[in-house]
Amino acid sequence: MGEPPKKDYPPGWNDPPMLNYSPSNPPPKSRIGSKRVAFPLGSANSSPQPVPSGESPKMPPLPSTDGSPCNEELYLRGSKNFNACLENLDEDSKEQVWMMLSAWQGGTFSDNVQEFLADLSEPLSLKTFSSVNPLNMRFTILAKDPGLQKYLPILKHLMSKCSAPV
């Protein structure tokens, strides 16, 4: 069993490298260069702050999108109607509705979204909302609004809970 025959062509991309080890050039003991290392996510001088036990990390404030100042008339009408819908909802759903109303008052929503929410709140509070309601088309169009996207799940939940029996 001698040495493999010499090749007359250059090595291909997947041929192993030809390593010449000798007593003066022994093979390395470990291959540190081939080990994976963690990629640093932050800068070198910032270290993650530990979260005290029992507390959840603080969320950053909501970015203000292309919202408009709160239209008080629409807000008061919508707020009254949405609060009337809350009777039969669980605490988590109520909290989400209150967060949406707070965002509305803070100017997160555009004029179109404010009008839609005020219009949507009326049939929901009266429990006369139906799936064939023309508001469904507006809902589909306005669902792409960046200010409204966070509140789509609670609006869908309200539409299903407060809809008229078919």
Topology, please?
Blueprint (H helix, E strand, L loop, with lengths): L71 H14 L5 H15 L5 H15 L9 H8 L9 H10 L5
Helix pairs in contact: 1-2, 1-3, 3-4
Task: For this entry, give a set of tags.
about 170 residues, mainly alpha, RNA Binding Protein, Prp18, Chain A
Structure description:
The chain is mainly α. The protein has a domain at 72-161: Up-down Bundle (RNA Binding Protein, Prp18, Chain A). 37% of the residues lie in helices and 0% in strands. It has helices at 72-85, 91-105, 111-125, 135-142, 152-161. α1 runs parallel beside α3 (111-125) and α3 packs antiparallel against α4. 17% of the residues are buried.
- Termini distance? 86 Å
The CATH top-level class label of one domain: Mainly Alpha
Order of helices and strands: HHHHH
- Report the count of strand segments: 0
Radius of gyration over all CA atoms, rounded: 31 Å
Number of helices: 5
Low-pLDDT windows of residues: 59-65
Q: Helices and strands: which structural class?
A: mainly alpha
Beta-strand percentage range: under 5%
Quote the CATH topology of one domain. Answer: RNA Binding Protein, Prp18, Chain A
Q: What does the largest sheet look like?
A: none
Q: So what's the overall shape?
A: rod-shaped
> Roughly what percent helix?
25-40%
